[in-house]
Recover the amino acids of this structure.
C-alpha cells in the first residue's frame, strides 16, 4: 500500500470514530480512535526511517 492509501485508511478510521462518538458509542469510538492513532504513528515512523532521519528510541 502506498502512502496515499494509508492516509485514506487513517482518515476513514478518524471519520468513523467521530460518527461513532456522535452516535454515543463511546467505547467503540475510543477503540477506533486508538487504531487511527497507531496507524498514523506507524506511517510517520516508517517515513522517517525511509528518509534517513535518525530516531531516538
Amino acid at each position: 500500500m502506498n502512502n496515499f492509501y494509508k492516509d485514506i485508511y487513517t482518515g476513514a478510521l478518524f471519520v468513523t470514530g467521530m460518527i461513532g462518538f456522535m452516535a454515543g458509542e463511546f467505547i467503540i469510538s475510543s477503540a477506533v480512535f486508538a487504531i487511527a492513532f497507531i496507524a498514523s504513528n506507524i506511517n510517520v515512523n516508517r517515513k522517517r526511517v525511509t528518509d534517513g532521519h535518525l530516531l531516538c528510541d
Summary: The chain has a mean pLDDT of 78. Residues 10 and 36 are 5 Å apart (CA to CA). The first helix runs from residue 3 to 22.
